[in-house]
Amino acid sequence: MAGQTHSTTEGMHEAIEVPAAEHGAGFPPFDSTTFASQLLWLAITFGVFYWIMKNVAVPRISGILEDRRDRIAGDISEANRLKEETDAAIAAYEQALAEARNKAHGIAHDTRSKLKAEHEARREKVEAELNGKLKEAEAQIAATKTDALSQIGDIAGETASALVEQLIGKAPTKTDLTKALKSAMN
Fold it and tell me: What is the C-alpha separation between 29 and 35, in angstroms, rounded?
Protein backbone atom coordinates (compact mmCIF):
# COMPACT_ATOMS: atom_id res chain seq x y z
CA MET A 1 0.00 0.00 0.00
CA ALA A 2 2.89 2.24 0.59
CA GLY A 3 3.77 1.82 -3.05
CA GLN A 4 0.31 2.73 -4.11
CA THR A 5 0.33 5.80 -2.00
CA HIS A 6 3.58 6.89 -3.54
CA SER A 7 2.33 6.36 -7.06
CA THR A 8 -0.90 8.16 -6.30
CA THR A 9 1.02 11.11 -4.97
CA GLU A 10 3.22 11.15 -8.08
CA GLY A 11 0.08 11.00 -10.23
CA MET A 12 -1.26 14.04 -8.48
CA HIS A 13 1.86 15.99 -9.05
CA GLU A 14 1.71 15.11 -12.66
CA ALA A 15 -1.94 16.09 -12.90
CA ILE A 16 -1.18 19.42 -11.36
CA GLU A 17 1.71 20.07 -13.63
CA VAL A 18 -0.08 18.98 -16.77
CA PRO A 19 -2.87 21.63 -16.71
CA ALA A 20 -0.36 24.40 -16.05
CA ALA A 21 1.50 23.37 -19.15
CA GLU A 22 -1.65 23.23 -21.26
CA HIS A 23 -2.76 26.82 -20.38
CA GLY A 24 0.57 28.24 -21.16
CA ALA A 25 0.43 32.08 -21.31
CA GLY A 26 -1.61 33.05 -18.20
CA PHE A 27 -4.78 35.21 -17.65
CA PRO A 28 -6.25 36.06 -21.14
CA PRO A 29 -7.19 39.73 -20.52
CA PHE A 30 -3.59 40.44 -19.63
CA ASP A 31 -2.33 38.80 -22.80
CA SER A 32 -0.78 41.60 -24.87
CA THR A 33 -1.63 39.94 -28.17
CA THR A 34 -5.38 40.43 -27.53
CA PHE A 35 -5.23 44.10 -26.38
CA ALA A 36 -6.42 45.51 -29.71
CA SER A 37 -9.51 43.33 -29.93
CA GLN A 38 -10.23 43.95 -26.24
CA LEU A 39 -10.06 47.72 -26.78
CA LEU A 40 -12.32 47.44 -29.83
CA TRP A 41 -14.95 45.47 -27.89
CA LEU A 42 -14.58 47.88 -24.97
CA ALA A 43 -15.33 50.81 -27.27
CA ILE A 44 -18.27 49.01 -28.91
CA THR A 45 -19.70 47.96 -25.52
CA PHE A 46 -19.17 51.45 -24.12
CA GLY A 47 -20.86 52.97 -27.17
CA VAL A 48 -23.84 50.59 -26.89
CA PHE A 49 -24.21 51.26 -23.14
CA TYR A 50 -23.84 55.02 -23.75
CA TRP A 51 -26.51 54.91 -26.46
CA ILE A 52 -28.85 52.83 -24.18
CA MET A 53 -28.27 55.22 -21.28
CA LYS A 54 -28.75 58.31 -23.48
CA ASN A 55 -31.83 57.11 -25.37
CA VAL A 56 -33.56 54.81 -22.87
CA ALA A 57 -32.46 55.14 -19.22
CA VAL A 58 -31.83 58.90 -18.94
CA PRO A 59 -35.15 59.89 -20.63
CA ARG A 60 -37.01 57.48 -18.37
CA ILE A 61 -35.22 58.79 -15.27
CA SER A 62 -35.76 62.41 -16.30
CA GLY A 63 -39.43 61.59 -17.02
CA ILE A 64 -39.74 60.02 -13.58
CA LEU A 65 -38.03 63.03 -11.98
CA GLU A 66 -40.29 65.41 -13.93
CA ASP A 67 -43.38 63.44 -12.85
CA ARG A 68 -42.20 63.53 -9.23
CA ARG A 69 -41.48 67.26 -9.48
CA ASP A 70 -44.96 67.85 -10.97
CA ARG A 71 -46.58 65.63 -8.34
CA ILE A 72 -44.70 67.42 -5.54
CA ALA A 73 -45.66 70.83 -6.96
CA GLY A 74 -49.29 69.66 -7.26
CA ASP A 75 -49.23 68.33 -3.70
CA ILE A 76 -47.74 71.59 -2.42
CA SER A 77 -50.35 73.66 -4.28
CA GLU A 78 -53.10 71.35 -2.96
CA ALA A 79 -51.69 71.69 0.56
CA ASN A 80 -51.62 75.48 0.17
CA ARG A 81 -55.20 75.45 -1.11
CA LEU A 82 -56.31 73.28 1.80
CA LYS A 83 -54.41 75.53 4.22
CA GLU A 84 -56.20 78.58 2.80
CA GLU A 85 -59.55 76.78 3.10
CA THR A 86 -58.69 75.81 6.66
CA ASP A 87 -57.67 79.37 7.50
CA ALA A 88 -60.92 80.65 5.97
CA ALA A 89 -62.91 78.05 7.93
CA ILE A 90 -61.10 79.02 11.15
CA ALA A 91 -61.75 82.70 10.49
CA ALA A 92 -65.44 81.97 9.80
CA TYR A 93 -65.62 79.85 12.96
CA GLU A 94 -64.02 82.59 15.05
CA GLN A 95 -66.36 85.20 13.55
CA ALA A 96 -69.39 83.00 14.21
CA LEU A 97 -68.13 82.38 17.74
CA ALA A 98 -67.67 86.13 18.32
CA GLU A 99 -71.16 86.80 16.94
CA ALA A 100 -72.60 84.07 19.17
CA ARG A 101 -70.83 85.55 22.20
CA ASN A 102 -72.12 89.02 21.37
CA LYS A 103 -75.62 87.63 20.87
CA ALA A 104 -75.38 85.73 24.17
CA HIS A 105 -74.20 88.88 25.95
CA GLY A 106 -77.09 90.80 24.37
CA ILE A 107 -79.61 88.16 25.40
CA ALA A 108 -78.17 88.08 28.92
CA HIS A 109 -78.28 91.89 29.12
CA ASP A 110 -81.87 91.98 27.81
CA THR A 111 -82.93 89.24 30.21
CA ARG A 112 -81.18 90.96 33.11
CA SER A 113 -82.87 94.28 32.21
CA LYS A 114 -86.27 92.60 31.83
CA LEU A 115 -85.94 90.77 35.15
CA LYS A 116 -84.75 93.96 36.84
CA ALA A 117 -87.75 95.86 35.45
CA GLU A 118 -90.15 93.10 36.55
CA HIS A 119 -88.54 93.04 39.98
CA GLU A 120 -88.76 96.84 40.23
CA ALA A 121 -92.44 96.74 39.18
CA ARG A 122 -93.21 94.05 41.78
CA ARG A 123 -91.32 96.00 44.43
CA GLU A 124 -93.22 99.18 43.61
CA LYS A 125 -96.52 97.27 43.69
CA VAL A 126 -95.69 95.73 47.07
CA GLU A 127 -94.54 99.13 48.39
CA ALA A 128 -97.81 100.68 47.16
CA GLU A 129 -99.80 97.92 48.86
CA LEU A 130 -97.79 98.36 52.05
CA ASN A 131 -98.24 102.15 51.94
CA GLY A 132 -101.99 101.62 51.47
CA LYS A 133 -102.11 99.23 54.41
CA LEU A 134 -99.95 101.61 56.46
CA LYS A 135 -102.36 104.50 55.71
CA GLU A 136 -105.30 102.27 56.63
CA ALA A 137 -103.57 101.29 59.87
CA GLU A 138 -102.72 104.95 60.64
CA ALA A 139 -106.32 105.93 59.92
CA GLN A 140 -107.58 103.12 62.15
CA ILE A 141 -105.11 104.14 64.89
CA ALA A 142 -106.22 107.76 64.53
CA ALA A 143 -109.88 106.72 64.69
CA THR A 144 -109.19 104.54 67.72
CA LYS A 145 -107.21 107.38 69.32
CA THR A 146 -109.98 109.87 68.59
CA ASP A 147 -112.57 107.46 69.89
CA ALA A 148 -110.44 106.77 72.97
CA LEU A 149 -109.87 110.47 73.56
CA SER A 150 -113.57 111.17 73.20
CA GLN A 151 -114.30 108.52 75.78
CA ILE A 152 -111.57 109.74 78.16
CA GLY A 153 -113.78 112.54 79.34
CA ASP A 154 -116.61 110.13 80.18
CA ILE A 155 -114.23 107.60 81.77
CA ALA A 156 -112.42 110.35 83.72
CA GLY A 157 -115.75 111.77 84.80
CA GLU A 158 -117.01 108.40 85.99
CA THR A 159 -113.72 107.67 87.75
CA ALA A 160 -113.58 111.12 89.39
CA SER A 161 -117.22 110.85 90.43
CA ALA A 162 -116.56 107.40 91.95
CA LEU A 163 -113.44 108.69 93.77
CA VAL A 164 -115.18 111.80 95.09
CA GLU A 165 -118.11 109.72 96.23
CA GLN A 166 -115.77 107.36 98.02
CA LEU A 167 -113.85 110.17 99.61
CA ILE A 168 -116.71 112.45 100.52
CA GLY A 169 -119.48 110.01 100.57
CA LYS A 170 -121.60 112.04 98.20
CA ALA A 171 -121.48 112.08 94.35
CA PRO A 172 -120.73 115.44 92.71
CA THR A 173 -123.18 117.02 90.30
CA LYS A 174 -122.66 116.66 86.63
CA THR A 175 -122.04 120.38 86.13
CA ASP A 176 -119.35 120.51 88.85
CA LEU A 177 -117.74 117.39 87.43
CA THR A 178 -117.65 118.79 83.83
CA LYS A 179 -116.12 122.09 85.05
CA ALA A 180 -113.46 120.26 87.04
CA LEU A 181 -112.56 117.97 84.10
CA LYS A 182 -112.34 120.85 81.61
CA SER A 183 -110.02 122.82 83.90
CA ALA A 184 -107.82 119.71 84.43
CA MET A 185 -107.56 118.85 80.72
CA ASN A 186 -106.51 122.32 79.59
Answer: 8
